[in-house]
Design goal:
The protein has 432 residues and is α/β, with parallel strands linked by helices. It has 13 helices and 19 strands. The chain binds zinc ion (ZN).
Protein backbone atom coordinates (compact mmCIF):
# COMPACT_ATOMS: atom_id res chain seq x y z
CA UNK A 1 0.00 0.00 0.00
CA UNK A 2 1.11 3.57 -0.68
CA UNK A 3 1.13 6.29 1.96
CA UNK A 4 0.45 10.00 1.73
CA UNK A 5 1.83 12.21 4.50
CA UNK A 6 0.31 15.68 4.98
CA UNK A 7 3.47 17.50 6.01
CA UNK A 8 2.48 21.08 5.24
CA UNK A 9 1.65 22.11 8.80
CA UNK A 10 2.90 25.47 10.02
CA UNK A 11 2.85 24.64 13.71
CA UNK A 12 2.09 28.09 15.04
CA UNK A 13 1.62 26.76 18.58
CA UNK A 14 5.03 25.13 18.38
CA UNK A 15 6.78 28.26 17.11
CA UNK A 16 9.09 28.36 20.12
CA UNK A 17 10.70 25.09 18.94
CA UNK A 18 10.10 25.26 15.18
CA UNK A 19 11.31 28.71 14.12
CA UNK A 20 13.02 27.82 10.86
CA UNK A 21 11.61 24.36 10.27
CA UNK A 22 8.18 23.05 9.29
CA UNK A 23 6.27 21.47 12.16
CA UNK A 24 6.70 17.83 11.01
CA UNK A 25 10.49 18.34 11.19
CA UNK A 26 10.42 19.16 14.90
CA UNK A 27 12.93 16.99 16.72
CA UNK A 28 12.02 14.46 19.39
CA UNK A 29 15.05 13.24 21.27
CA UNK A 30 17.19 14.56 18.43
CA UNK A 31 15.29 13.00 15.51
CA UNK A 32 12.68 14.68 13.25
CA UNK A 33 9.09 13.57 13.77
CA UNK A 34 8.71 12.71 10.06
CA UNK A 35 11.67 10.37 10.23
CA UNK A 36 9.91 8.30 12.89
CA UNK A 37 6.83 8.13 10.64
CA UNK A 38 8.82 7.06 7.61
CA UNK A 39 10.63 4.36 9.58
CA UNK A 40 7.34 3.07 10.98
CA UNK A 41 5.88 2.85 7.46
CA UNK A 42 8.96 1.12 6.09
CA UNK A 43 8.97 -1.39 8.95
CA UNK A 44 5.44 -2.37 7.87
CA UNK A 45 6.53 -2.80 4.24
CA UNK A 46 5.08 0.53 3.06
CA UNK A 47 7.83 2.05 0.93
CA UNK A 48 6.07 4.23 -1.62
CA UNK A 49 5.44 7.57 0.05
CA UNK A 50 3.92 10.80 -1.21
CA UNK A 51 4.73 13.84 0.84
CA UNK A 52 2.50 16.90 0.64
CA UNK A 53 4.60 19.85 1.73
CA UNK A 54 3.96 23.55 2.09
CA UNK A 55 5.56 25.87 4.59
CA UNK A 56 9.41 25.61 4.36
CA UNK A 57 9.13 22.58 2.09
CA UNK A 58 12.84 22.75 1.13
CA UNK A 59 13.83 21.72 4.67
CA UNK A 60 11.94 18.42 4.29
CA UNK A 61 13.15 17.80 0.72
CA UNK A 62 16.78 18.46 1.59
CA UNK A 63 16.66 16.13 4.56
CA UNK A 64 14.90 13.13 3.01
CA UNK A 65 15.67 13.64 -0.71
CA UNK A 66 14.17 10.65 -2.58
CA UNK A 67 14.12 8.57 0.61
CA UNK A 68 16.60 5.88 -0.49
CA UNK A 69 18.64 6.32 2.70
CA UNK A 70 15.58 5.05 4.60
CA UNK A 71 14.74 2.32 2.12
CA UNK A 72 11.68 4.14 0.76
CA UNK A 73 10.76 6.10 -2.35
CA UNK A 74 9.44 9.62 -1.68
CA UNK A 75 7.58 11.79 -4.20
CA UNK A 76 6.81 15.38 -3.22
CA UNK A 77 3.86 17.58 -3.97
CA UNK A 78 4.43 21.14 -2.84
CA UNK A 79 1.32 23.19 -2.14
CA UNK A 80 2.01 26.74 -3.24
CA UNK A 81 -1.15 27.92 -1.54
CA UNK A 82 -2.78 25.88 1.22
CA UNK A 83 -5.68 23.78 -0.10
CA UNK A 84 -7.19 22.61 3.18
CA UNK A 85 -6.77 19.11 4.53
CA UNK A 86 -7.60 17.32 1.26
CA UNK A 87 -7.19 19.69 -1.71
CA UNK A 88 -3.69 18.45 -2.59
CA UNK A 89 -4.99 14.90 -3.06
CA UNK A 90 -6.57 15.98 -6.38
CA UNK A 91 -3.05 16.34 -7.83
CA UNK A 92 -1.94 12.87 -6.65
CA UNK A 93 -4.97 11.03 -8.00
CA UNK A 94 -3.28 9.59 -11.07
CA UNK A 95 -0.29 8.30 -9.10
CA UNK A 96 -2.30 6.59 -6.37
CA UNK A 97 -3.42 2.95 -6.21
CA UNK A 98 -7.02 1.92 -5.45
CA UNK A 99 -6.52 2.26 -1.66
CA UNK A 100 -3.98 4.42 0.13
CA UNK A 101 -2.96 5.34 3.64
CA UNK A 102 -3.18 8.98 4.67
CA UNK A 103 -1.30 10.33 7.72
CA UNK A 104 -1.26 13.75 9.31
CA UNK A 105 2.36 14.87 9.58
CA UNK A 106 2.12 16.14 13.16
CA UNK A 107 1.59 12.73 14.77
CA UNK A 108 4.04 10.67 16.70
CA UNK A 109 2.98 7.08 16.19
CA UNK A 110 4.11 3.50 16.50
CA UNK A 111 1.56 1.41 14.71
CA UNK A 112 1.30 -2.05 13.18
CA UNK A 113 -0.18 -0.82 9.89
CA UNK A 114 -0.67 -4.36 8.58
CA UNK A 115 -3.53 -4.85 11.08
CA UNK A 116 -5.20 -1.60 10.03
CA UNK A 117 -4.92 -2.54 6.35
CA UNK A 118 -6.43 -6.00 7.02
CA UNK A 119 -9.35 -4.34 8.82
CA UNK A 120 -9.95 -2.05 5.85
CA UNK A 121 -9.87 -4.91 3.36
CA UNK A 122 -12.21 -7.02 5.46
CA UNK A 123 -14.90 -4.34 5.58
CA UNK A 124 -14.46 -3.28 1.99
CA UNK A 125 -15.59 0.24 2.92
CA UNK A 126 -14.57 3.49 1.25
CA UNK A 127 -12.85 4.93 4.31
CA UNK A 128 -11.35 3.44 7.46
CA UNK A 129 -10.52 5.75 10.36
CA UNK A 130 -7.88 4.85 12.91
CA UNK A 131 -9.67 5.46 16.22
CA UNK A 132 -8.67 5.32 19.86
CA UNK A 133 -9.73 6.50 23.29
CA UNK A 134 -7.79 9.50 24.60
CA UNK A 135 -7.23 11.32 27.89
CA UNK A 136 -9.35 14.36 26.92
CA UNK A 137 -12.47 13.18 25.07
CA UNK A 138 -14.40 16.19 26.36
CA UNK A 139 -12.52 18.51 23.99
CA UNK A 140 -12.06 16.07 21.09
CA UNK A 141 -14.19 15.24 18.06
CA UNK A 142 -15.88 11.92 18.84
CA UNK A 143 -16.71 9.00 16.61
CA UNK A 144 -19.87 7.01 17.24
CA UNK A 145 -19.54 3.46 15.90
CA UNK A 146 -21.42 0.19 16.03
CA UNK A 147 -19.80 -2.95 17.44
CA UNK A 148 -18.55 -4.01 14.00
CA UNK A 149 -16.88 -0.61 13.57
CA UNK A 150 -19.36 1.05 11.21
CA UNK A 151 -19.39 4.74 11.99
CA UNK A 152 -22.86 6.19 12.50
CA UNK A 153 -22.08 9.67 13.72
CA UNK A 154 -19.38 12.23 14.26
CA UNK A 155 -19.70 14.63 17.20
CA UNK A 156 -17.71 17.82 16.79
CA UNK A 157 -15.77 19.13 19.75
CA UNK A 158 -17.57 22.42 19.22
CA UNK A 159 -21.07 21.06 19.84
CA UNK A 160 -22.35 21.26 23.39
CA UNK A 161 -22.69 17.77 24.88
CA UNK A 162 -25.84 17.08 26.77
CA UNK A 163 -25.47 13.29 26.93
CA UNK A 164 -22.83 10.78 28.01
CA UNK A 165 -20.54 9.48 25.27
CA UNK A 166 -18.13 6.65 24.51
CA UNK A 167 -14.48 7.67 24.39
CA UNK A 168 -13.57 7.08 20.75
CA UNK A 169 -11.53 9.68 18.92
CA UNK A 170 -10.26 10.05 15.37
CA UNK A 171 -6.47 9.82 15.51
CA UNK A 172 -5.64 11.39 12.12
CA UNK A 173 -4.70 8.22 10.20
CA UNK A 174 -6.94 7.03 7.39
CA UNK A 175 -7.21 4.49 4.61
CA UNK A 176 -9.10 5.90 1.65
CA UNK A 177 -10.46 4.24 -1.42
CA UNK A 178 -9.34 6.32 -4.42
CA UNK A 179 -13.02 6.69 -5.42
CA UNK A 180 -13.41 9.13 -2.53
CA UNK A 181 -11.08 11.69 -4.12
CA UNK A 182 -11.94 11.20 -7.80
CA UNK A 183 -14.40 14.09 -7.85
CA UNK A 184 -11.99 16.66 -6.36
CA UNK A 185 -11.16 19.63 -8.57
CA UNK A 186 -7.50 20.57 -8.89
CA UNK A 187 -6.63 23.82 -7.16
CA UNK A 188 -9.75 23.91 -4.99
CA UNK A 189 -9.68 23.84 -1.19
CA UNK A 190 -11.25 20.80 0.52
CA UNK A 191 -11.80 19.79 4.12
CA UNK A 192 -11.20 16.07 4.59
CA UNK A 193 -13.51 15.62 7.58
CA UNK A 194 -16.42 17.77 6.46
CA UNK A 195 -16.42 17.31 2.70
CA UNK A 196 -15.16 13.76 2.20
CA UNK A 197 -15.70 11.74 5.38
CA UNK A 198 -18.98 13.16 6.75
CA UNK A 199 -21.06 12.47 3.59
CA UNK A 200 -19.77 8.88 3.51
CA UNK A 201 -20.71 8.31 7.16
CA UNK A 202 -24.28 9.12 6.17
CA UNK A 203 -24.27 6.21 3.68
CA UNK A 204 -22.49 3.69 5.96
CA UNK A 205 -19.19 3.73 4.06
CA UNK A 206 -16.89 4.68 6.96
CA UNK A 207 -15.52 2.20 9.52
CA UNK A 208 -13.54 2.90 12.68
CA UNK A 209 -10.57 0.70 13.49
CA UNK A 210 -10.14 0.69 17.28
CA UNK A 211 -6.53 0.52 18.26
CA UNK A 212 -4.68 0.57 21.56
CA UNK A 213 -1.46 1.76 19.93
CA UNK A 214 0.45 4.94 20.66
CA UNK A 215 -0.61 7.87 18.48
CA UNK A 216 -0.23 11.43 19.78
CA UNK A 217 -0.12 14.81 18.12
CA UNK A 218 2.70 17.06 19.16
CA UNK A 219 0.79 20.33 18.74
CA UNK A 220 2.15 22.10 21.83
CA UNK A 221 5.57 22.21 23.57
CA UNK A 222 4.03 20.40 26.58
CA UNK A 223 2.76 17.49 24.45
CA UNK A 224 6.07 17.34 22.66
CA UNK A 225 8.03 16.93 25.88
CA UNK A 226 5.53 14.37 27.16
CA UNK A 227 6.00 12.24 24.01
CA UNK A 228 9.79 12.55 24.33
CA UNK A 229 9.59 11.15 27.85
CA UNK A 230 7.35 8.28 26.71
CA UNK A 231 9.81 7.40 23.92
CA UNK A 232 12.66 7.27 26.46
CA UNK A 233 10.57 4.92 28.61
CA UNK A 234 9.85 2.69 25.59
CA UNK A 235 6.08 3.08 25.93
CA UNK A 236 5.19 3.70 22.25
CA UNK A 237 7.02 0.59 21.05
CA UNK A 238 5.62 -1.54 23.88
CA UNK A 239 2.13 -0.55 22.64
CA UNK A 240 2.87 -1.50 19.01
CA UNK A 241 0.48 -4.40 18.34
CA UNK A 242 3.12 -6.38 16.49
CA UNK A 243 4.67 -6.85 19.96
CA UNK A 244 3.08 -8.97 22.72
CA UNK A 245 1.01 -6.73 25.01
CA UNK A 246 0.73 -6.66 28.77
CA UNK A 247 -2.66 -5.84 30.17
CA UNK A 248 -4.38 -5.08 33.46
CA UNK A 249 -7.89 -6.50 33.25
CA UNK A 250 -10.39 -4.81 35.54
CA UNK A 251 -13.68 -6.04 36.83
CA UNK A 252 -16.36 -3.33 36.67
CA UNK A 253 -18.91 -3.30 39.53
CA UNK A 254 -17.23 -2.96 42.93
CA UNK A 255 -13.84 -2.36 41.32
CA UNK A 256 -14.21 0.70 39.08
CA UNK A 257 -17.69 1.78 40.14
CA UNK A 258 -19.31 1.54 43.55
CA UNK A 259 -20.99 -1.74 44.34
CA UNK A 260 -24.75 -1.28 44.69
CA UNK A 261 -25.92 -4.71 43.60
CA UNK A 262 -26.55 -4.78 39.85
CA UNK A 263 -26.34 -1.52 37.96
CA UNK A 264 -29.47 -1.34 35.81
CA UNK A 265 -29.80 2.39 35.12
CA UNK A 266 -27.29 4.90 33.83
CA UNK A 267 -27.38 7.17 36.87
CA UNK A 268 -26.73 4.17 39.18
CA UNK A 269 -23.12 4.17 38.12
CA UNK A 270 -20.79 6.12 40.41
CA UNK A 271 -17.02 5.77 40.23
CA UNK A 272 -15.16 4.33 43.21
CA UNK A 273 -12.98 6.88 44.94
CA UNK A 274 -9.61 7.27 43.19
CA UNK A 275 -10.57 4.74 40.47
CA UNK A 276 -10.00 7.36 37.75
CA UNK A 277 -6.59 8.22 39.18
CA UNK A 278 -5.70 4.52 39.28
CA UNK A 279 -6.71 4.03 35.62
CA UNK A 280 -4.80 7.16 34.63
CA UNK A 281 -1.69 5.51 36.09
CA UNK A 282 -2.25 2.37 34.00
CA UNK A 283 -2.72 4.57 30.91
CA UNK A 284 0.73 6.09 31.48
CA UNK A 285 2.34 2.65 31.93
CA UNK A 286 3.09 -0.03 29.31
CA UNK A 287 -0.08 -1.93 30.36
CA UNK A 288 -3.40 -1.85 28.51
CA UNK A 289 -6.59 -1.25 30.52
CA UNK A 290 -9.39 -3.67 29.64
CA UNK A 291 -12.69 -4.16 31.48
CA UNK A 292 -14.17 -7.67 31.76
CA UNK A 293 -17.59 -7.74 33.36
CA UNK A 294 -20.40 -10.26 33.88
CA UNK A 295 -23.71 -8.57 33.08
CA UNK A 296 -26.40 -11.22 33.57
CA UNK A 297 -28.92 -8.36 33.86
CA UNK A 298 -29.05 -8.44 30.05
CA UNK A 299 -30.10 -12.11 29.84
CA UNK A 300 -32.58 -11.57 32.63
CA UNK A 301 -34.17 -8.72 30.72
CA UNK A 302 -33.47 -6.24 33.53
CA UNK A 303 -31.27 -3.98 31.42
CA UNK A 304 -31.21 -3.69 27.62
CA UNK A 305 -28.09 -3.62 25.43
CA UNK A 306 -28.95 0.03 24.75
CA UNK A 307 -29.11 0.86 28.47
CA UNK A 308 -25.81 -0.95 29.07
CA UNK A 309 -24.24 1.09 26.28
CA UNK A 310 -25.45 4.24 28.08
CA UNK A 311 -24.02 2.98 31.39
CA UNK A 312 -20.66 2.45 29.68
CA UNK A 313 -20.93 5.88 28.09
CA UNK A 314 -21.41 7.39 31.55
CA UNK A 315 -18.43 5.43 32.89
CA UNK A 316 -16.19 6.59 30.03
CA UNK A 317 -17.44 10.18 30.25
CA UNK A 318 -16.75 10.36 34.00
CA UNK A 319 -13.31 8.76 33.60
CA UNK A 320 -12.50 11.05 30.66
CA UNK A 321 -13.26 14.15 32.72
CA UNK A 322 -10.48 13.00 35.05
CA UNK A 323 -8.06 12.24 32.20
CA UNK A 324 -8.43 8.44 32.29
CA UNK A 325 -9.55 6.01 29.59
CA UNK A 326 -10.28 2.33 29.01
CA UNK A 327 -8.74 0.56 26.05
CA UNK A 328 -11.67 -1.84 25.66
CA UNK A 329 -14.77 -3.06 27.49
CA UNK A 330 -15.89 -6.70 27.27
CA UNK A 331 -18.99 -8.00 28.97
CA UNK A 332 -20.83 -11.30 29.17
CA UNK A 333 -24.58 -10.80 28.67
CA UNK A 334 -25.42 -14.46 29.33
CA UNK A 335 -26.86 -16.34 32.26
CA UNK A 336 -28.10 -19.88 32.82
CA UNK A 337 -30.71 -19.59 35.59
CA UNK A 338 -34.14 -19.42 34.04
CA UNK A 339 -37.38 -18.03 35.41
CA UNK A 340 -36.85 -14.24 35.34
CA UNK A 341 -39.71 -12.15 34.08
CA UNK A 342 -38.84 -10.58 30.72
CA UNK A 343 -35.71 -12.73 30.28
CA UNK A 344 -34.15 -13.18 26.85
CA UNK A 345 -34.24 -16.92 26.02
CA UNK A 346 -31.44 -16.77 23.43
CA UNK A 347 -28.99 -15.45 26.05
CA UNK A 348 -29.84 -18.20 28.54
CA UNK A 349 -27.18 -20.78 27.97
CA UNK A 350 -23.86 -22.02 29.32
CA UNK A 351 -21.52 -19.64 27.49
CA UNK A 352 -17.73 -19.64 27.53
CA UNK A 353 -17.38 -16.00 28.59
CA UNK A 354 -19.12 -15.72 31.97
CA UNK A 355 -16.37 -15.38 34.59
CA UNK A 356 -14.72 -17.50 36.00
CA UNK A 357 -14.61 -18.84 32.45
CA UNK A 358 -11.93 -17.22 30.39
CA UNK A 359 -13.73 -16.42 27.11
CA UNK A 360 -13.50 -12.63 27.48
CA UNK A 361 -9.80 -12.81 28.32
CA UNK A 362 -8.89 -15.12 25.46
CA UNK A 363 -10.89 -12.99 23.05
CA UNK A 364 -9.09 -9.85 24.25
CA UNK A 365 -5.77 -11.68 24.00
CA UNK A 366 -6.47 -12.64 20.39
CA UNK A 367 -7.72 -9.19 19.40
CA UNK A 368 -4.93 -7.19 21.06
CA UNK A 369 -2.02 -9.65 20.99
CA UNK A 370 -1.98 -9.85 24.80
CA UNK A 371 0.32 -12.18 26.70
CA UNK A 372 -1.96 -13.38 29.50
CA UNK A 373 0.88 -14.87 31.57
CA UNK A 374 2.41 -11.41 32.08
CA UNK A 375 -0.94 -9.71 32.60
CA UNK A 376 -3.06 -9.06 35.69
CA UNK A 377 -6.70 -9.20 36.67
CA UNK A 378 -8.07 -7.05 39.48
CA UNK A 379 -11.51 -7.61 40.95
CA UNK A 380 -13.52 -7.49 44.18
CA UNK A 381 -14.77 -11.11 44.09
CA UNK A 382 -13.27 -14.58 44.31
CA UNK A 383 -14.85 -15.15 40.88
CA UNK A 384 -12.44 -12.58 39.43
CA UNK A 385 -9.48 -14.21 41.16
CA UNK A 386 -10.55 -17.66 39.95
CA UNK A 387 -10.90 -16.25 36.40
CA UNK A 388 -7.32 -15.02 36.54
CA UNK A 389 -6.10 -18.39 37.82
CA UNK A 390 -8.01 -20.17 35.05
CA UNK A 391 -6.34 -17.95 32.45
CA UNK A 392 -2.85 -18.33 33.94
CA UNK A 393 -2.62 -14.69 34.97
CA UNK A 394 -1.51 -12.81 38.06
CA UNK A 395 -4.37 -11.79 40.32
CA UNK A 396 -5.18 -8.95 42.71
CA UNK A 397 -8.17 -8.71 45.03
CA UNK A 398 -9.45 -5.21 45.73
CA UNK A 399 -11.09 -4.65 49.11
CA UNK A 400 -13.85 -2.39 47.74
CA UNK A 401 -17.23 -3.75 46.58
CA UNK A 402 -17.72 -7.31 47.76
CA UNK A 403 -14.10 -7.40 49.01
CA UNK A 404 -13.87 -11.15 48.43
CA UNK A 405 -16.89 -11.83 50.66
CA UNK A 406 -18.74 -13.68 47.89
CA UNK A 407 -16.52 -16.66 48.91
CA UNK A 408 -17.48 -18.73 45.87
CA UNK A 409 -13.92 -19.94 45.24
CA UNK A 410 -10.91 -20.59 47.41
CA UNK A 411 -8.44 -19.12 44.94
CA UNK A 412 -5.80 -17.03 46.73
CA UNK A 413 -4.90 -13.72 45.07
CA UNK A 414 -1.25 -12.79 44.49
CA UNK A 415 -1.91 -9.32 45.90
CA UNK A 416 -4.59 -7.60 47.98
CA UNK A 417 -5.13 -3.81 47.89
CA UNK A 418 -7.52 -1.61 49.82
CA UNK A 419 -8.69 0.23 46.69
CA UNK A 420 -7.94 0.21 42.95
CA UNK A 421 -5.26 2.88 43.30
CA UNK A 422 -3.34 0.85 45.88
CA UNK A 423 -3.61 -2.27 43.67
CA UNK A 424 -2.23 -0.39 40.66
CA UNK A 425 0.60 1.16 42.66
CA UNK A 426 1.62 -2.30 43.90
CA UNK A 427 1.50 -3.82 40.41
CA UNK A 428 3.34 -0.99 38.67
CA UNK A 429 5.96 -0.71 41.38
CA UNK A 430 9.13 0.62 39.78
CA UNK A 431 7.50 0.50 36.32
CA UNK A 432 5.81 3.84 36.99
ZN1 LIG B 1 -21.15 -15.18 28.29
Amino acid sequence: MQAVIMAGGKGTRLSSVTKDIPKPMVKLNGKPLLEYQIENLRNCGITEIFMITGHLSHVIMEYFSDGHKWGVNITYYNEEKPLGTAGALAFLRDSLDDDFLLLLGDLYLEVDFTRFILFHKKNNSEISLFAHPNAHPQDSDLIVALKDGRVTDWISKHTERTDYYRNLVNAGIYILDKKTICGLEEGKTYDLDKEIIAPLIAVGQVYAYRSTEYVKDIGTPERLSCVEKDIKKGIPSSRNLSNKQQCIFLDRDGTINRYKGFVRHTEDLELEEKAALAIKKINASPYLTVVVSNQPVIARGECSFGELEKIHSRMETLLGLEGAYLDRIYYCPHHTDKGFEGEIPELKFECDCRKPKTGMLTRAAAEMNIDLASSWIIGDTTVDIQTGKNAGMKTCLVMTGEAGEDKKYDAKPDLVGKNLLECIEMILGDKE
